[in-house]
Structure formats: C-alpha cells, structure tokens
Design brief:
This protein is mostly helical. The protein is 47% helix and 9% strand. It has 2 domains: 1-39; 42-188, no CATH class. It starts with a helix and ends with a helix. The relative contact order is 0.13.
C-alpha cells in the first residue's frame, strides 16, 4: 500500500510539472522571445491575414509564380506525401500531367527546349512546402512577366531579392518563398 501511495504522489507531481507547468513556461517564453514564429509566421496584406510563411498555397493564375505540387491539395490539416513508389504508374501519370502543364504554360527561355525543374513536378514530403528553387522561379519568369505585362528584368530583380540563401550557409539549396514573392509582385504593380 505504501508503494501505491508513493506512486500516486509521484504521478501527480510529474503530471503537474510536465503536463501543465513546463508547457505553460515554454509558451510564455516563446511568445516573449519569438512572437512572430510562435503565432504561426502569419503574413498580413492590407490588414488581412493571407497565409503563413511556413505553409505553401495553390496559385493557378498565370500572373503568379506557382508552388510545388501538393499531394494533399495544400490542406494543412492533412499534411503528408502521396507515398507512391517510384515504380508507381499513378506517380508516373502525375509526373507526365504536371510536365505537360508546365511546358504548355511556360513557353520558355528564348524558345529553347528546357527541362521542367524537378521541384515543380514532384510534391514535397509534407505536401505544404512554401518554397521553390531559384531554377523553378526562373523557369516561370517569362510567363509571369508576360501575364502582368511588365519587364522580365523587374520580375528577375524581385526573384533575386526574395532568394533565401542556404540555411546556416551549408544546408539545402537557395530557395524562394512563393507567397512572399507573389505578394511583392502585387505590391510592385500598385
């Protein structure tokens, strides 16, 4: 009986510490240290929340840069990959459809035959990646400039301005947040 009472007291104390006090302290500390990140890295435009810097969105208009494909249709509640194997006929079919779409919508680079960047053909592991590669942005540059009837140099300057470098200088590849770039394009035309 003595061991049972000790166990119950220990359970109550640890539940209070790890289930209530620790999460409360971390939440308060995080809100003080990094409030933007703690609250979801939300982006506002004209006083309205238009998205998060951390979650990709679907853009289909020709005047916007398009995001990576999403296996979950950009639904943050069901984040995940398609889990299709490289040998899957469904994945091959998706690949072909995406390639035809991008080649059809992006008559490109001085009318030379070019390959569609891989990050525009395959979804990310989460299905919510907000970034595209610099190569993917350059691939879409001519289409976006033409649809907006602005110079390619202006769009290229924005792409360069919004290019994020490798994390810690060594991890990953240079990338561009699609939502931030598209909002900058909209501001540029006002």
């Amino acid at each position: 009986m003595k061991n049972l009472l000790i166990s119950l007291k220990l359970f109550a104390v640890l539940s209070l510490l790890t289930g209530i006090l620790y999460p409360m302290c971390i939440t308060v500390y995080a809100n003080q240290l990094a409030p933007y990140q703690t609250n979801g890295s939300l982006i506002e435009n004209n006083g309205m929340t238009v998205g998060s810097e951390l979650i990709g969105q679907k853009f289909i208009s020709e005047k916007y840069f398009w995001s990576r494909p999403s296996a979950v249709d950009y639904n943050a509640l069901s984040s995940g990959a398609s889990n299709l194997a490289l040998s899957s006929q469904d994945l091959f079919k998706q690949y072909k459809q995406r390639k035809l779409l991008f080649l059809g919508q992006n008559s490109n680079v001085n009318d030379q035959v070019v390959e569609v960047p891989q990050d525009l053909l395959f979804a990310s592991g989460s299905g919510l990646d907000p970034h595209i590669s610099v190569e993917s942005a350059n691939f879409q540059l001519k289409r976006v400039a033409g649809a907006r009837q602005i110079s390619q140099d202006l769009v290229r300057n924005l792409v360069n301005q919004f290019t994020e470098s490798r994390q810690f200088g060594i991890l990953g590849e240079p990338r561009i947040n699609v939502l931030l770039l598209n909002l900058a394009l909209d501001r540029e035309l006002k």
